[in-house]
């Protein structure tokens, strides 16, 4: 692996502490980082090197998969970390940053390969890339890559404008737009699961599949991120990126992938084939407080700090999508995601058509289901019908595989390892992002005009009843 500098904008932020440092440390412990590397944290907070290193150590104690007991190894990792105090809106200070990076490169024999990770508010993505460009920080004799956090844009227009700005500093193949759902082990496994198992490959089409249901339910509320979430809602926070990526990863059909770009090309074709959705097929809702005997047990969305009391932000979205390809014609894809729901669960459920062999009790048969569990546990469940040995009646049985006992690396580990290797397969290409915004844009407008009304659901429930009715109207129910 090539030596490199990893320049992290947003080094004091929540994501850096919870995900990025632990992922880097885990990769280091697994010998998946280059021999020579340097992590340069960038933030406004005034910190010296020791203070910065100790905040990173705290985050490793709390969040890393590997134990930090090996003191020598931990120290060796921490010594690779340094910090520069920069306000990214100040063009001048990029010259200092550049001098610092060059100093590190020379001192540690790092060559001239640079990864820039933008783990900052999306409002800063364009100013950072502009200043990287203007200051010459992006002029390297080696390779350079930029990892950009989500959301990429606020709507179609702003996403296009941001992309043009970023393209002034980096070419498309140097841009790694991160969608951490694409790093989740079971999502990375999907393509293999289908293409490496002829039994699944042969049934993966509208011949046998009745519908696909993709759920990403959360129990948490907006936490400390209300200022971001108020402008985002579930539609931008989850649907435009993670949910559409899950749809594409489920629908992609490849027997044998030939090249890195093939998966992306296939996804782009699918995204292009998603039909515009009519307002009746989209449900938006917001959670209300949960009270028991007049006591508030869980706050409603509008009670959360930083949220307007008359906010109409969506904290739940469900929708029906139709992919207009020969494989998926006639198979509805239902998606739902929301905050403050009963349980944390991300899964893909493939419901198969009714039995074609109308045996005497086929009408009692439950549908066959293939459930791909993504979070909190990885695994696969297949629901089949069996005969009860005593009553002789049909009963659904489950064949289960669970990977929860394995110590699986986190999404960010997979994605960072790929970016360091220069493999963009599981990052989103601009064409995918643009098509996703194109599909979402009319829905955003229908939210604004109230053509899609706002419904409510009590915190701790399964979401609004309108989401159940959406499926009922197609003859199905959520699994
Ligand atoms: N947190 C999460 O769970 C997730 C976050 N993301 C995305 O990751 C990105 C980062 O999020 P998160 O870590 O939560 O954000 P935080 O608000 O916790 O951190 C923001 C970081 O940006 C730095 N920063 C802000 N303004 C400036 C400035 N003018 N100059 C230099 N640095 C600045 C802050 O440094 P300082 O305080 O020193 O100024 C801080 O390190 C966002 O794009 C978010 O959408 C994506 C998925 C999940
Ligand atoms: O990107 C985001 O994802 C998280 C949910 O991620 P998960 O890995 O826990 O399923 C969500 O809470 C957050 O609002 C969103 O920005």
Automatic annotation (TrEMBL):
Q: Which GO terms describe its molecular function?
A: glucose-6-phosphate dehydrogenase activity
The Glucose-6-phosphate dehydrogenase NAD-binding domain extends over: 7-189
- Which pathway or pathways does this protein act in? Carbohydrate degradation; pentose phosphate pathway; D-ribulose 5-phosphate from D-glucose 6-phosphate (oxidative stage): step 1/3
**Record's InterPro entries?**
G6P_DH (IPR001282), G6P_DH_C (IPR022675), G6P_DH_NAD-bd (IPR022674), NAD(P)-bd_dom_sf (IPR036291)
Q: Which UniProt keywords apply?
A: Carbohydrate metabolism, Glucose metabolism, NADP, Oxidoreductase
- Family per similarity comment: Belongs to the glucose-6-phosphate dehydrogenase family.
**Record's keyword annotation contains Mitochondrion:** no
Q: What is its EC number?
A: 1.1.1.49
Gene3D superfamilies to which the protein is assigned, alphabetical: Dihydrodipicolinate Reductase, domain 2, NAD(P)-binding Rossmann-like Domain
Query: What is the name listed in the Swiss-Prot or TrEMBL entry for this protein?
Result: Glucose-6-phosphate 1-dehydrogenase
